[in-house]
Amino acid sequence: MLTLRYMQIGDVTQVVAIDKYSFETPWSARSYVYEVKNSNYSHMVVLALEEEKRVSGWRRWLRPFNGGNGAHRSQIIGYGGLWHLVDEAHISTIATHPQWRGRGLGEVVLAAMIRRALTLNAAYVVLEVRVSNIVAQNLYTKYGFYVVGTKAGYYRDNDEDAYDMRLNLHRDMRPALDERWRALQAKHGFRDLYTESQRPPVVP
Ligand SMILES: CC(C)(COP(=O)(O)OP(=O)(O)OC[C@H]1O[C@@H](n2cnc3c(N)ncnc32)[C@H](O)[C@@H]1OP(=O)(O)O)[C@@H](O)C(=O)NCCC(=O)NCCS
């Protein structure tokens, strides 16, 4: 089942593989582990295809003690990073698996982070994007982000400029976003264990 949930340590290997494919300067596995385990400000999300493993024999009898969920195998379809500090929510990363692009799932990840930012009571969402990354810019403008400035030579690999983009959040946006969210859920049939869930506790 397609599931939106907080990123876990067990997801990092797959996330890093997608990251390497998607970015010129990918994050290290260590950075992801830090974001998931140790950062109080970080709300990392994954969209995963989850398959419940068949559990047989005596292990079946342990299922009620494991929350009734059994064991899961997850294929990561997309992921994103959201830092939240007081009024600001900052989208630190977003990507979808190359074989799953163009199906509306990057939109699900972005919409989830906007929704999470709203439930965290952030006042605005910001992000940086390469000036050449038209696909991502289209996705952001679809959700009302607009360019507020340019950071010259922001990307170290080729000195490319970044656009600073921003979306202001208002309580009165909620009904329209909720409606859009329900339409995405109806289209893709995912369960949402992220946008209104508690962040798993950090390890100090
Ligand atoms: C950016 C990214 C996350 C988009 O994910 P995706 O799953 O392909 O996107 P979706 O199918 O959900 O499309 C959502 C919107 O993105 C834009 N978009 C997607 N593919 C596009 C394309 N080939 N050309 C132009 N715009 C495109 C459109 O606005 C689209 O909405 P629409 O279908 O109503 O036109 C994905 O392309 C990716 O992982 N890219 C590499 C990493 C990256 O650049 N991240 C952004 C860093 S700032």
Fold and architecture overview:
- This protein has 204 residues and is an alpha+beta fold.
- It has a single domain, classed as Aminopeptidase (3-Layer(aba) Sandwich), CATH 3.40.630.
- 31% of the residues lie in helices and 31% in strands.
- The protein contains six helices and eight strands.
- It has helices at residues 12-22, 29-37, 58-62, 105-119, 134-142, 174-188, and strands at 2-6, 45-52, 72-85, 88-96, 124-130, 146-155, 160-168, 191-192.
- Strands 6-7-5-4-3-2-1-8 form an eight-stranded mixed β-sheet, with helices on both faces.
- Helix 4 runs antiparallel to helix 6 (174-188).
- The longest helix has 15 residues, at 105-119.
- The chain starts with a strand and ends in a 12-residue tail after the last strand.
- Coenzyme A is lined by residues 22, 94-96, 101-107, 129, 133-136, 138-139, 142.
Summarize the structure.
The chain is of the alpha+beta class.
Secondary structure topology:
Layout: E1 2-6, H1 12-22, H2 29-37, E2 45-52, H3 58-62, E3 72-85, E4 88-96, H4 105-119, E5 124-130, H5 134-142, E6 146-155, E7 160-168, H6 174-188, E8 191-192
Parallel strand pairs: 1-8, 4-5
Antiparallel strand pairs: 1-2, 2-3, 3-4, 5-7, 6-7
Helix pairs in contact: 4-6
Coenzyme A (COA) binds at residues 22, 94-96, 101-107, 129, 133-136, 138-139, 142.
